[in-house]
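notes to self, project folder thing:

trying the whole complex as one job this time. last attempt i did each chain seperately and stitching them together was a nightmare. two parts in total, labels are on each line so i dont mix them up again. if this works i'll redo the older ones the same way
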Amino acid sequence: MKLRSLLVLLTLLPLSIAAQTPAERGLAIAQESDRRDIGFTDSQADMVMTLKNRQGEESVRDLRVKVLEVQGDGDKSLTIFDEPRDVKGTALLTFAHGADPDDQWLYLPALKRVKRIASKNKSGPFMGSEFAFEDIGSQEVEKYTYKYVRDEAVDGKQAFLIERYPVDENSGYTRQEVWMDQAEYIPLKIVYYDRKNELLKTLVFSDYQQYLGKHWRAGKMHMENHQTGKSTLLEWKNYRFRTGVDAGDFNQNALKRAR
Amino acid sequence: MNRARLFLFGGMTLAVAALPAHGAEWYGNVTAQSRLFDKTSSSADQKRSYTSLSFESTFYHQSNSGRDLFAVTPFVRVDEHDAERTHADLRELTWVRVNDDSEWRLGLRKVFWGMTEGVHLVDVINQTDLVENVDGEDKLGQPMINLSLVREWGIVDLFILPYFRERTFPASDGRPRTVLPVATELAQYESSDQENHVDYAIRWVHSIGDWDVGLSWFKGTNRDPLLQPGLNGAGQPVLVPLYKQMEQFGVDLQATKGDWLWKLEVIDRDTRSTHYTAAAGGFEYTFIGLFDTQADLGVIAEYLYDERGVSAPTPTQDDILIGLRWTLNDTQSTEALVGVILDRGSDARMLSLEASRRLGQDWKVALEARWFTDQPTGDPLYPNRDDDFVQVELSRYF
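result (full assembly):
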């Protein structure tokens, strides 16, 4: 038994040293990006979403997001809606799970009702915006397979261009192109291809800031839909880390009192 | 509700609005509603159109780093004709203390239990505000002391309910209503403590993988009154509500399997005169991104059962609910829900339509319609056979 595993090791060893395949290299970049963000513990931030249609008419959503880092599983998050006023107090609790579907509960304040919702609905738009649920959800490494394409700069910043392919067959995409900053391993741009493998959307990250000397968060995320001409701008404000929240702030009781 | 009380209530609402806004929030809506009935009623009191104005607002304050929460939600409606529908309520007047693994919740509160869409069998804490809508989804605030315990194996809620609130009913000029108007002022109780009877309840909820489970127990005054023929002070025939004592065990379940939601509610209700089981179960399946659009279409099917059969005072004892939920997922959050409840024992059908759409940032328009068709005599909905209506609402949120 021991000898056999040694033999396996010996046959693998030269390969990994000699040449990383594009798939291995792509995965390694994603893992490094994930590894660098480990240890933020928890975060809270305010988000303003500005939706723009083809005619340039705007509508605005205000929400607050709390995230709890979970070791060995996907993160837990609580999203609370403030604007538009008719959905004020609505809240969404999400337990992300690597490649498995997330668990999601929605709280409807008018009825005081908590509803478990089908989280396979990940390709659906988030609050009528150009962001799908799967775009704003926790980006676990296991949710995709990867391929390194080439080095390519974005706005003068050296970046790795990798392709990633959603594992979940209910994803709205065949693939995504991600430009990952070479110095900090943070995404600079993502291009989304729909189920027919046609160009769908482009997401550009900007106004990055570093927190706790380690964790980078984009201040702005601009999503443009090339097929509809609509766009959505997310602006993140008031980021706080290690605020002392724990698992007790991410259960049904927390969902009901969130407002 | 008399005028003096209404003014008092209005004054209180204004006082709440004038409270200092530091660390506090204030939000709500004003809604204009118009209900139009298809047919002229055989009762001379009832009209074909009812217009009303409602106001609901929440003042919310948190202190002590979010450990103490205070909320008050006054509601008031003024109806053109129906004096009983002109009413006010404190939907919420509550203080919550949040501890690490428990919560104390005191005051007037609203609680929702259950999973199914067609009926809400296990949901027995709050009294129905029936003058608001015939679907029974509107509730009155319930005085309570509620301790909620968070454990590894689920959340347990313990309730002491020290005061009972009577169901609201339309006046004789209200519509839709029962054949005879309900004389709420003559309400009778089985318990000699009447509305001061102290009720108790326990509920446990837990999520295990794809399953969400709830178990509940309630002992106290039945929120559903029996309506008995009687005479009012003027010697006119009326219906008199009788509130009995009951003990109820309830189970509610949901399995979330991909695009399928499987739902079940079962209750065992024991009163001095009857002991029966009622259940509702079925599924909701959602077609995601219908025809390559952003819209979703949900198909709902539920079977609604009541052991008491045709003698049950509820219209759903052996019925099937079929519903379609259409969600556009657009910027205006446009959605519509159509449902039909089919009685398996007769041809009676109740159709409903609910649709809404946001206008701009702060306005919302909502449409609701109900049709009652082929109700046989003796069916609880027979008196409403001519009460098909369409309701339009325009709300301004702030």
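what i see at first glance: The first strand of chain A starts at residue 42 and ends at 52.
need to look closer tmrw
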